[in-house]
Structures are given as structure tokens and as C-alpha cells.
Design a protein that fits this description.
- Helices cover 38% and strands 26% of the residues.
- It is of the alpha/beta class.
- A six-stranded mixed β-sheet has the order 6-7-8-3-9-10, with helices on both faces.
- A hairpin with a 2-residue loop joins β1 and β2.
- α4 crosses α5.
- The longest helix is centred in the C-terminal third of the chain and has 16 residues.
- The chain is globular, with a radius of gyration of 18 Å.
- It binds adenosine-5'-diphosphate and magnesium ion.
- The site of magnesium ion has 4 residues, from α1.
- It comes from Dialister hominis.
- It is a peripheral membrane protein.
- This is Peptide ABC transporter ATP-binding protein.
């Protein structure tokens, strides 16, 4: 079997905001096509960790490599921003643009593809997430679940090497959660490298290649979903799981 490379490599990073240490000596490797699910209590540093990966925050110490290149401050930042898509809890679509225009903008501006190609790619992706009939709608005319599916399609339109998800279903009404998780599952099955922060333990179990439990800025436990959910080692993990399962 050919060796799979580490697309993301986090080496001993710490992150401080003033006196507050939010991440403490975190290391994590994500291979191509892996889906790493990060779980942990609110305030434990999950968003900060994701934001460090795509350069929205800079670690106080340690190093992050993406595709073999170090991401640090301005260094390689454009490459990372182009190759790593991010889907947030709030949908962040451009409100004044149509759904299709939302999908066309970055590929035309950053990847320099033509408007015809961007339109074709955009429509294919809208079909994929089941929203081709909403191409000319404005985001506000869509439900939260539909907006989040558009956000995923928009991230995919850049043909990124990896996608980061920060609690993509936390702001949704319960009945819309599954439609977004289904799209994420499909994207994972097509081989996208993903890092997903979520409280959806069913998704973690079913789709995750690995699960990482973070508490107070520290990696407490890490393993396959089977390891972490069925053979939990650490008391802190057990306690957290008893609250969310
Ligand atoms: P999580 O996503 O796990 O809920 P976060 O990464 O958002 O956790 O936050 C971890 C801690 O860092 C929290 O105490 C939060 O208040 C703090 N924090 C996050 N961003 C900043 C910032 N820009 N400035 C100061 N403190 C921050
Ligand atoms: Mg968060």
C-alpha cells in the first residue's frame, strides 16, 4: 500500500491570549482522507485549534505544517487559505449575493477560473447538496440547514485539500441537523480530508477515522471511535461522554 502522507501536522502548539493559556502542547497529525473529529467541553480550545490550522490564529509556540509547508503568521498563509476550506457554526454566506454567486466568487477571484466554469462547478455542487433549485435565491430565503449545505458547497467549490468544520450543526434546529451531517458524510466518503469539531457523537462514531477529546486545552484522549467511545480510558473523557451521549 502506498504511504499516506500527513496533510496536517501540528507539533506541540500552545496558544495564549494574554495570561490565559488556551492550548497546551497539542500535537495532532491528520493524514490525507482522514476524518478527525474533535470533541470536548465548551471553552476547551477546539475553535482556537481549528483557527490555528488555517492561520486565523497564530500559536504562541510550536509549529503547524500543512501539506509539508509551515503555517506561521504570514508564512504560506495564502496557500493555506486557498487549500483549506472552513465551515462555521453560523453560515457566513454573503447575504447580498445569490446562492450560486456565493459559490462562484472565490473560485473566480482566487483560482482565476472563468465565470462559465464557476457557474458550471457551482451548479454541480448545488445539485450534490440537493439545492440546485435554490441557485437564484438569497441566503435569507433558505432554512438554516439549507444555508449550511450551501456553505459546504461553497467551501467545496474551491476544490480544497482539506475542510475544517467548527460545530456546523450547533446553530440548527434539530430537524435540520441530519441533512447537514448527511452531506458531510458524503463529502467524507469521497475522500476529503476533514477535521470536524462537533457534539454529534453519532457522526463521530460513524464517520470519524479518529476521535480526539480535548479538555482545558489539553489532548486528554485520542483513538478510533471504538477506542474512545467503547473502551474509554480517561475519567475526564468518561465524564464528558456521560453528559453528551
Ligand atoms: P471551544 O471552541 O472549545 O468552545 P475556544 O477555542 O473558542 O473554545 O475558546 C477557548 C478559550 O479561549 C475560552 O476561554 C475563550 O474565552 C478563549 N478565547 C478564544 N478566543 C479568544 C480571543 N481572541 N481572545 C481572548 N480569549 C479568547
Ligand atoms: Mg468553539
Amino acid at each position: 500500500m502506498p504511504e499516506t502522507k500527513n496533510l496536517i501536522e501540528i507539533k506541540h502548539i500552545s496558544k495564549k491570549f494574554g495570561d490565559l493559556t488556551v492550548l497546551k502542547d497539542i500535537s495532532l497529525k491528520v493524514k490525507e482522507k482522514e476524518v478527525v473529529v474533535i470533541i470536548g467541553p465548551s471553552g476547551s480550545g477546539k475553535s482556537t485549534l481549528l483557527r490555528c490550522i488555517n492561520g486565523l490564529e497564530t500559536p504562541t509556540s510550536g509549529a503547524i505544517f500543512f501539506d509539508g509547508l509551515e503555517v506561521n503568521g504570514e508564512k504560506n498563509i495564502n496557500y493555506v487559505r486557498t487549500e483549506v476550506g472552513m465551515v462555521f457554526q453560523r453560515f457566513n454566506l454573503f447575504p447580498h449575493m445569490t446562492v450560486l454567486q456565493n459559490l462562484m466568487l472565490a473560485p473566480m477571484k482566487v483560482r482565476k477560473i472563468s465565470s462559465d466554469e464557476a457557474k458550471e462547478r457551482g451548479m454541480l455542487l448545488l445539485k450534490k447538496v440537493g439545492l440546485a433549485d435554490k441557485a437564484d435565491y438569497k441566503p435569507a430565503q433558505l432554512s438554516g440547514g439549507q444555508q449550511q449545505r450551501v456553505a459546504i458547497a461553497r467551501a467545496l467549490a474551491m476544490k480544497p485539500k482539506a475542510l475544517l468544520f467548527d460545530e456546523p450543526t450547533s446553530a440548527l434546529d434539530p430537524e435540520m441537523v441530519h441533512e447537514v451531517l448527511d452531506v458531510m458524510k458524503e463529502v467524507a466518503e469521497e475522500g476529503m480530508t476533514m477535521v470536524v469539531v462537533t457534539h454529534e457523537m453519532g457522526f463521530a462514531r460513524e464517520v470519524g477515522s479518529r476521535v480526539v477529546f480535548i479538555d482545558q486545552g489539553v489532548t486528554v484522549e485520542e483513538g478510533t471511535p471504538e477506542d474512545v467511545f467503547n473502551h474509554t480510558k480517561e475519567d475526564r473523557t468518561k465524564e464528558f461522554l456521560s453528559q453528551v451521549l
